[in-house]
Design goal:
By secondary structure, the chain is of the alpha+beta class. Helices cover 19% and strands 40% of the residues. The protein is built from one helix and three strands; from the N terminus they run E-H-E-E. The protein has a three-stranded antiparallel β-sheet with strand order 1-3-2. The longest helix is centred in the first third of the chain and has 14 residues, at 13-26. The protein starts with a strand and ends in a 12-residue tail after the last strand.
Length: 72
């Protein structure tokens, strides 16, 4: 399972993703972070330079949690 894909149309998306990551790591069956991807983008907007970073965590489980079936 991967957590961290960004949807800019949803301002609460980051909070929900962090809650899901914490649930994956703290509830039974507990998952483990098996990988982490970091993407960095640098954009020029007029005279300003903006740097955006996106981190995607890959979480592995010994067996898939039942509560994970309902999450899209």
């Amino acid at each position: 399972m991967s957590i961290g894909n960004i949807n800019s149309n949803d301002p609460l998306n980051e909070e929900r993703q962090m809650a899901l990551l914490n649930k994956c790591l703290n509830e039974n069956p507990k998952g483990k972070i098996i990988g982490k991807d970091i993407s960095v983008g640098v954009f020029q907007v007029g005279d300003h330079q903006i740097t955006l970073q996106r981190t995607t965590y890959h979480v592995g489980f010994l067996r898939k949690p039942v509560w994970l079936e309902n999450i899209s």
